[in-house]
Amino acid sequence: MNDNGRKNSTKGRLEQIGPEDSLCGPDCACFQDQHEQLPEAKLKSDLGPIYLDHAATTPVRPEVREAMLPYFSETFGNASSIHLFGQKARKALEDARAIVAACIGAEAKEIYFTSGGSESDNLAIKGVVHAYQDKGRHLITSKVEHHAVLNCCKHLEAEELDVTYLPVDRFGVVKFEALEEAIRPDTILISVMLANNETGTLQPVSAITELAEKSGVPVHTDAVQAVGKIPVDVNELGVDLLSLSAHKIYGPKGIGALYIRTGTRIDPLFHGGHHERKRRPGTENVASIVGLAKAMELAKEEMQTRSACLGELRDHLQHRIQERIEHICLNGHPENRLPNTLNVSFKFVEGESLLLSLDMCGIAVSTGSACTSGALEPSHVLQAMGVDPAAAQGSIRFSFGHSNTDDEIDFVVESLAEIVARLRRMSPLYAEK
Ligand SMILES: Cc1ncc(COP(=O)(O)O)c(C=O)c1O
Questions:
Q1: What is the whole-number distance in angstroms between the Cα of residue 56 and the centre of ligand 1?
Q2: Distance of CA 284 to the CA centre of its chain
Q3: pLDDT score at 370
Q4: For residue 2, is it within any domain?
Q5: Pocket flag, ligand 1, residue 224 (CB < 6 Å)
Q6: Whose CB has fewer CB within 10 Å in the chain, the N or C terminal residue?
């Protein structure tokens, strides 16, 4: 095993493939179809498994793990206890809060620890909606948000809240005129993500907050994919609420934070003790909070060099795919995007088949379609961008991390070229084109 838990051999890879390794279960027609089509002789790499799914999650960095370890069994006190054990845990908690705040230009008292991005999004949206219900019942978000935001808004619609879902252009950028038209006297929140998790496209959040300020509407941004990859400063962005999560930046899973600007009203989701200034009750997960702070600190320190390397890997993959494979299209903004994400549609191919075949070669990526009851649904993000549904079904998200190399990218391109050609040979649509 190397630092990132990557094994140095692909041996036994085929035998390991099972329902728990793939998106679909063995009862799903899609799963059965894909596995029947697998080639006898699979491509092999002596590079070991190649992980290109860092937008889904990342391994915990050794430095982060080291920082967390003392808080499991040595400094294990409850941060609310007033004895020495509790005080030591409290100190670690408050130090971590100060680090997280400094990383995004906030004050320590504006940081609230949560269980991750999904909870932060829910707390921001439901919390503001409930606190401002005297002012209005209208929310604005975009069609390309993560499901943590979209499904939260859908839930609120069932509670008779009026939600406007802003359209986006072909690059996935929110249409600004639509936002201008959508703001009403009863609008109580605008929630637009900073960076999209499927395409990496960045939203003009500073321009959105400038517009919202004129109407006195608070703005929330889901910065789960952006933090640690691009500079994020709550004052430069002008946001009132910002969600972040540790496991996207080499921190532990199940921990995140919500930034709440001083003066923003918010109701808690849960009721319990006085933790997190009564906005998020529950005994604090000190070890994970320390891990989040360490991961953010390292990401900030190394951002310039790391982002440049990630951008080079992304561009290398993009150019090699463009050279080697025809009938492809790139999804997302060509410039205003995260350095570590590349979304490509391979026409006349199903993304799911491509993903499973790549997995057989030891390459982990993600698709832009989801298998729902055996049917492939193109992603809501690509649909909103107006990507042709057939092309959207053949879309793959590659997301890079510190450990990826140019050699890996070259192997991925060769594997892709062979797999795409094989899948296209079986496609009636390709034959007809
Ligand atoms: C943009 C975005 N928001 C929210 C989340 C949810 O974060 P978490 O997994 O920490 O709940 C994710 C995770 O993929 C994400 O990409």
A1: 8
A2: 24
A3: 54
A4: no
A5: yes
A6: N
Task: Tell me the CA–centroid distance for residue 192 and ligand 1, in Å.
Answer: 14
Based on the fold, state whether residues 280 and 228 are members of the same structural domain. Answer: yes
Q: In angstroms, what is the span from residue 51 Cα to ligand 1's centroid?
A: 19
Distance CA 421, CA 414 (A): 11
C-alpha 236/C-alpha 194 separation (Å) is 13
Q: Is the minimum distance from the CB of 251 to ligand 1 under 6 angstroms?
A: no
Indicate whether 4 belongs to any domain.
no
Name the E strands within 97-137: 111-114
The residues carrying an active-site annotation are 371
Residues 268 and 310 in one domain: no
Lowest mean pLDDT among 27-41, 112-126, 139-153: 27-41
- Residue after which a domain boundary falls, among 271, 297, 323: 297
% of the chain at pLDDT higher than 70 = 88
| Residue from 224, 296, 338 to probe ligand 1 pocket by mutation (most atoms less than 8 Å from CB) | 224
pLDDT band at 164 (very low <50, low <70, confident <90, very high): very high
Measured CA distances, 241 to 37, 322, 327 (Å) = 47, 39, 41
- If asked whether residues 184 and 266 sit together in one domain, one would say yes
Q: Is the CB of 291 under 6 A from ligand 1?
A: no
Evaluate: CB of 256 within 6 angstroms of ligand 1. Answer: yes
Residue 21 lies in a domain: yes
Beta carbons within 8 Å of 380's beta carbon, 6+ residues apart: 143, 144, 150
- CATH code assigned at 379: 3.90.1150.10
31/139 same-domain check: no
What is the pLDDT averaged over residues 55-76?
98
Domain around 37: 10-60+303-432
Same domain flag for 267 and 340 = no
pLDDT in tens, 179-214: 999 999 999 999 999 999 999 999 999 999 999 999
Residues 6+ positions from 49 with CB-CB distance below 8 Å: 6, 7, 10, 13, 362, 363, 364
pLDDT in tens, 290-346: 999 999 999 999 999 999 999 999 999 999 999 999 999 999 999 999 999 999 999
Q: How many domains does the chain have?
A: 2
246 & 333 share domain: no
* Residue 326 and residue 416 in one domain: yes
Per-residue pLDDT, 66: 98
